[in-house]
Amino acid sequence: MPEQPQSEEPGADRPVVIRLAHSPDPDDAFMWWPLVGVRGEGPAFDTGRFRFETVAEDIDALNRRAIAEATGDRGDPGTDSRRLDVTAMSCGTWPFVQRDWKVTACGASLGDGYGPKLVARREAIVRPEALVEPGRRVLVPGLRTSAAMALRLRTGGRSLDLVAVPFDEIPARTAAGEADAGLVIHESQLTFESEGLALVEDLGAWWHGETGLPLPLGLNCIRADLDERHGPGTTAEVTGLLRASIDHALAHRETSLDYALGFARGMDPALADRFVEMYVNRWTLDFGVDGRSAVASFLDRLADLDLVPRATPEFVAGPCGDGAVR
Which of 10, 76, 293, 319 is a good FRET partner for 233, with 20 to 30 A between their CA atoms? Predict the structure, then answer.
């Protein structure tokens, strides 16, 4: 059932509504359920003057939504076009919307020696360098996803025939021969072999070999105008609550995993647990020095190849400086 429009203007006794968008995957669901409750019964801890609403959308859809808003194109008027206050976003997309969104110090997904995987049919394995040849096609989960941008870096920024398709269709369509290779993300990083596919290259491992750093994939971003709309300090307050949500989820792992399984698309609990552990970890609590360096290096290399605008993020933390509420 579509969400019903409602006023977002807080009154004297009405909380400030914060709309938080995330990808419909176990790791994001794991992090954010404490802000709304497992069954809509309310937050797992005191969120003060704020009431959170969560919206689950594919990461490519969220990327395109952020860019459309930045360019003034609100898209299909039949869809829910109410503004988001916090959203997941690909690191490769953020430079295009940097004026409107800040990067929070918590809530990101980094691949520490692993990440999106370039795969192909076992009988048609191909080197990454060969994908620049005329006539080669690669299925990707969005042209401005960090996965696609990492592949562009891997091939030196050379022209590639990248075809954007829904992320969950990439394994089957690659196996059916629609393209020479496919770039898999989310749970398909763990299950692609069951589709008859073979690994060409793990882009997170390649990036780590190049830089010694984790590969920045999904960022968590917050509106740049929250303080203007809801008072000085709002950005820090909300970011502190985001960090508190992750802390609570990790401290109540069994409940968090049980909720996350509802977003696991048929994964068994052990596999879902493994996937969550890959992308909800110390990097998610705070980028730290290496995480910040990873983002800077990734964005600088993309900009050097004219793949994104030059951008240097400001990492927004909560009132204690590290994103935590104490």
Answer: 293
Q: Where in the chain is the domain with CATH 3.40.190.10?
A: 16-111+215-316, 117-211
For residue 267 the two structure tokens come to 């994964």
Which of 30-39, 78-87, 117-126, 172-181 comes out lowest in average pLDDT? 78-87
Q: Residues 186, 208, 230, 248: which is the catalytic one? A: 186
Q: Is 4 helix (H, G, I), strand (E, B) or coil?
A: coil
pLDDT digits (tens, 9 = 90+) for 6-46: 444 555 578 999 999 999 888 899 999 999 998 778 999 99
Known catalytic residue at 22 = no
Q: Is residue 167 a contact partner of residue 186, using CB atoms and an 8 Å limit?
A: yes
Q: From the centroid of its chain, how far is CA 134?
A: 31
- Start-to-end C-alpha separation, the chain: 38
CB contact set of 279 (below 8 Å; sequence gap of 6+): 27, 109, 110, 111, 217, 218
What's the pLDDT at 17? 96
CA distance 240 to 106: 9
Cα separation, 48 vs 273, in Å, equals 31
Which amino acid is it at 99? R
CATH code of domain 16-111+215-316: 3.40.190.10
> What's the mean pLDDT in 246-274?
88
The tokens for 236 are 């820090």
Q: What is the CATH number of domain 117-211?
A: 3.40.190.10
Q: Which two tokens stand for residue 142?
A: 């969005």
| Residue 69 contacts residue 101 (beta carbons within 8 Å) | no
Task: Count Cβ neighbours within 10 Å for each residue of 90-126 and write b for 16 or more, e otherwise.
Answer: bbbbbbbbbeebbbbbbbbbbbbebbbbbbbbeeeeb
